[in-house]
Amino acid sequence: MNRSEARKCAQELVARMTLEEKASQLRYDAPAIPRLNIPEYNWWNEALHGVARAGTATMFPQAIGLAAAFDEDLMEEIGACIAREGRAKYNAQAAHDDRDIYKGLTFWSPNVNIFRDPRWGRGHETYGEDPFLTARLGVRFIQGIQGRDGSDNGGYLRAAACAKHFAVHSGPEALRHSFDAKADPKDMEETYLPAFEACVKEAGVEAVMGAYNRTNGEVCCASPALQKILREKWGFKGHFVSDCWAIRDFHENHKVTNSPEESVQLALKNGCDVNCGCTYQKILDAVKQGLIDQAWIDESCIRLFTTRFLLGLFDPEKTPYDEIPFTEVECAANLALAHRAAKEGIVLMKNNGVLPLNLRAMSAGKTPVIGVIGPNANSRSALIGNYHGTSSRYVTVLEGIQDYTEKWAQENGTESARILYSEGCHLYKDNVENLSKPEAPDRLAEARTVVEYSDVVILVVGLDETLEGEEGDTGNAYSSGDKKDLHLPPFQEELLRSLLPCDKPVIVINAAGSAIDLSLPQEKADAVIQAFYPGARGGTDLAQILFGEVSPSGKLPLTFYKDTKDLPDFTDYSMKNRTYRYYEGTPLYPFGYGLTYGDCSVTGMVVQKLAESGLSEKEKDEINHSNHVVRVIVSVENRGADTEDVLQIYMHGLDDPCAVPNPQLAGFKRLKLRRDECKDVILELPEKAFTSVDEEGVRKIRSGRFEIYASFSQPDDVSAKLTGHSAVKRVLEW
Questions:
Q1: What span, in angstroms and rounded, lies between the C-alpha atoms of 296 and 37?
Q2: Domain boundaries, the chain
Q3: What is the rounded CA–CA span in Å between residue 704 and residue 3?
Q4: Percent of the chain with pLDDT over 70
Q5: Which of 673-704 are b and which e, b meaning 16 or more Cβ less than 10 Å from the residue's Cβ?
Q6: What is the torsional sign of CA 111, 115, 117, 119?
Q7: Which residues contact 255 (CB under 8 A, 6 or more apart)?
Q8: How far apart are the C-alpha atoms of 508 and 424, rounded to whole Å?
């Protein structure tokens, strides 16, 4: 069934409905219409990194951790896995007539907002700060969720994805219900809109969700300007959904309307098809007041039933997806995919040679003692981020180390390492036990003792969804889910200051979904690892990395700043001095950075315009379907241990006053490289990579000369210093 056929079926069905019935179907909790054999349907479901909030499901790393893998193929596989598990759960639940919230096939994911400011609490739901990376990962995730062209399944969607939050949305959380995000045309076209455009035009995303805030004066869930871009400029054919209770904000907080009925009018007139909230219960009142053109209701209803037909929910014959059994949930293949995602997304930021830990050497003549300390060392919350489902098993960092060392001992016929553990301090309070004296953290003495007895110390700090997340969902009431600054909670910083000067090797693992000031660990620790939120069983994967069974290979999808003092105000949506593309300062860790146990570098690069590349016309046609115009052939080598790594291509237009200040990501490819392996890698760059955007928001090619960089990091001085390798540069004459 294609969209045209599905829409025709929807039109015929909607034509048989009364006004009251049509109005009822625009609520997120659409009731049944028994006389037309329409079951109830709840549009609200979540699948940011696994089917969420509806019981057991495979729990992948949080979205920011998935982004750190820089792996498009992985994202599509994860999307397909989530869709299949979603179908399995839907089939089982519908068979028991359970059609409650979080149990439908319309997933309100992915979040493709740009993580422009490190203080934003919801940034870990995104794919980071770069529009190109966000677009590439978002497109492939959606293609995984929905399927590609439907040729193998009768044209049906596996599930329906939703790109959110449209548009220009990234905090502050405390102000989101009344805030007006002001972005000029250049920043809109250059930063805030590209990922949404790709999701619509390339992936054919079935739904788009509006943001809570206003953008340039117009409420995002009823913005004529945004709808014109979405439906007229980009050709979006799917349905539009409000963020939850955002339409109520029109009259209560934004004050752009005077009543719920006027808010209904504004939303329906401007293409908001589904109301997540309760304001659309006033549709009939608005009709009575003469505020509503019933054609708006008809069109929204038709769009929604078009999606339901595309999902195969009214097909008298079973679709290929109706047979997916509940045993698909957390099956071995899905769990293996989650482990792969975790291993690819964990970022090694510093290593003075202490990693990987060598149990054989540590066991020579004695039982090794490993100290595991920190509030996130044995925390399940530190594994999963927000918008999560339930895993049938969790493996914390502590448990992963315990399991690994016990297994190693059994396989090698030796005594297992002794693992000593201390919580060290509470995640954010002064003491773990409420009746303890407030003078010093009540686990600090224990932590110091563990250090004294240990050969090596693994210190696990960071945040969890109670400290960074969505307004209203977190325990971080003082900042509504956002961070006030880049510091760890003070008692964790005290723990670091107390333990890092010891004379034992210390490895710091940061489990958090955003940039944290890790200056002290970078200076004092022997190794630093950014784990993000690695998934329900991520402790297993961290242990494999710590002990060298797997080489780390993640790259930072965001800049780690030293402080916020040189960043613009949080409420300033101008991109000046934000993210690696515009930042004027010196970062602690740059975007695109991450070490491995290998030693990968670029040794050469050839840049060819496809028109002059010697390719056959057939080969050029195959490449040009994606509008690629330049081929880059990069020579790479690995002089270290076997590893995966991410080759990155950056571009910068010369003599172009409209170009972003710093080279920007234009291509990437995850590679496997054995020790001493050398090979050539081919990437094609699209025409868009050579464009720039002027102050009026017009994108076109303006430069005749471009610098093209190839490296396993960003081509900046800090990356070169941290990795020991500089990017290879070529100049292309257009």
A1: 24
A2: 3-328, 346-558, 600-733
A3: 42
A4: 97
A5: beeebeeebebbbbebbbbbbbeeeeeebbbe
A6: positive
A7: none
A8: 13
Query: What is the band of 363 on the pLDDT scale with cuts at 50, 70, 90?
Result: confident
The answer to whether 455 and 357 have CB atoms below 8 angstroms apart is: no
For the stretch 15-28, pLDDT in tens is 999 999 999 999 99
Dihedral class, residue 12 (left if φ above 0, else alpha if ψ from -120 to 50, else beta): alpha
What is 3-328's CATH topology? TIM Barrel (3.20.20)
Direct distance between the N- and C-terminal alpha carbons of the chain, in angstroms, rounded to an integer: 44
How far, in Å, CA of 731 to CA of 702, rounded?
Answer: 15
Looking at residue 367, its amino acid is T
pTM attached to this predicted model: 0.97
3-state class (DSSP) for residue 715: coil
CA dihedral over 395, 399, 400, 406, signed as positive or negative: negative
What are the helix (H) ranges across 555-670?
579-582, 617-624
- Cis before 356 (ω within 30): yes
pLDDT digits (tens, 9 = 90+) for 511-562: 999 999 999 999 999 999 999 999 999 999 999 999 999 999 999 999 999 9
From the list 243, 482, 526, 645, the catalytic residue is 243
- Structurally, at CATH architecture level, domain 600-733 sits in Sandwich (2.60)
Using CA atoms, how far apart are residues 614 and 567, in angstroms rounded to an integer?
A: 47
Asked about 243 being catalytic, the answer comes back as yes
Fold classification of 346-558 is Rossmann fold (3.40.50)
Distance of CA 19 to the CA centre of its chain: 40
